[in-house]
Amino acid sequence: MSLNLATDPEPVFKLEGVRYVYNGRQPALDSINLEVKRGEQLALLGANGSGKSTLLKVLDGIYSPNGGKMRALGRDIAAVASGHDSFRFHREVGLVFQDPDVQLFSATVFDDVAFGPLQLGLPQVEVLARCEEALEMMEISHLARRAPFELSGGEKKRAAIASVLSLKPEVILLDEPTAALDPRTKWVLVNLIQKLGQAGKTIITATHELEIVPLIASRTIVIGENRQILADGPSHELLHDTDLLVRANLIHPQLHYLGHSTH
Ligand SMILES: Nc1ncnc2c1ncn2[C@@H]1O[C@H](COP(=O)(O)OP(=O)(O)OP(=O)(O)O)[C@@H](O)[C@H]1O
Ligand SMILES: [Mg+2]
Questions:
Q1: Which long-range contacts (CB under 8 A, 24 or more apart) does 149-153 make?
Q2: How far is the CA of 213 from the centre of ligand 2 (A)?
Q3: Measured from the CB, is residue 46 less than 6 Å from ligand 1?
Q4: Is residue 219 part of a domain?
Q5: Residues facing 233 on adjacent strands
Q6: Residue 47 lies in a domain
Q7: Minimum-distance ligand to the CA of 249?
Q8: What is the pTM of this model?
Q9: Per-residue buried b or exposed e for 146-171, using 16+ beta carbons within 10 Å of the residue's own CB
């Protein structure tokens, strides 16, 4: 059965009381209740170790929850995580990992960007067109023939993003996509997320960069240091709630001067 995203009445993700524990002893997510509708753009905020990357991996079906219920794109997530249906699921959901070294494994950047479209069995011209488009979007066409290990940190990040864009997924999960990017590239990415959002894609971005949040997400989820959801609401409201931001360790009173960097 193929899934028609335009008519499917189910939310893209529905999590009820989801828990995730690494190796049976390291808790990473606790009692996560979250519903994401098609076409929403969300920001995921939280201190180091609060569970943002783990949540994105759970949403991507890489990890299966240890407790609670979860459905993704009309499927029970356990089926995706156990390998049944994984291929079809990953045509629709793409995750850009926090660490680009996890994403880049081919001999050249081009091969990494072409990997997904080739797996989809697309005709060669289509593969080429998608690669060119994705490389251009991330402004790395000139790096296509380079080996990923020869790139700078920011260039690797751009290549990793391009390798997901070439798949043209309906749902895009971005784990700190602007980390290590220079301001121009950061701006390119912010614009790209806006454009993809306007095109109806569902996008969830984990980030520590509060200044990009209102530009890329109308809704924000804050995960607290207890690994539970602390707040879920309109980005512009949450970003003005200084108490919440301090409590979630997203700003520090001694480092935060009402948005001004000088004191
Ligand atoms: N592979 C792993 N094995 C065991 N524990 C892990 C593993 N990955 C993460 N953890 C733990 O799970 C918790 C959540 O980690 P996670 O990487 O999801 O946090 P995060 O919010 O993405 O943090 P950051 O802002 O540093 O990227 C942390 O306590 C972390 O130490
Ligand atoms: Mg992380």
A1: 151/109, 153/100, 153/180
A2: 16
A3: yes
A4: yes
A5: 220
A6: yes
A7: 1
A8: 0.93
A9: bebeebeebbbbbbbbbbbbbbbbbb
Rounded Cα distance between 53 and 48, Å, is: 10
Give the pair of three-digit tokens for residue 113.
């960007």
| Residue-level length of the chain | 263
For the chain, the domain total comes to: 1
Say which residue the tokens 């066409």 belong to.
Answer: 141
**Three-class secondary structure of residue 121 per DSSP:** coil
Report the atom number in ligand 1 closest to the C-alpha of 29: 14
Give the span between the Cα atoms of 255 and 263, in whole angstroms. 10
> Ligand 2 centre from 147 Cα, in Å?
25
Does the Cβ of 50 fall within 6 Å of ligand 1? yes
Residues 6+ apart with CB under 8 A from 259: none
pLDDT by residue, tens only, the chain of 263 residues: 444 545 557 899 999 999 999 999 999 999 999 999 999 999 999 999 999 999 999 999 999 999 999 999 988 887 776 777 787 888 899 999 999 999 999 999 999 999 999 999 999 999 999 999 999 999 999 999 999 999 999 999 999 999 999 999 999 999 999 998 899 989 999 999 999 999 999 999 999 999 999 999 999 999 999 999 999 999 999 999 999 999 999 999 888 655 544 33
| Domain at 244, CATH number | 3.40.50.300
Is residue 183 domain-resident? no
Tokens 């990415």 identify what position?
189
List the domain range (segments joined by +) for residue 231.
Answer: 11-84+171-178+203-254
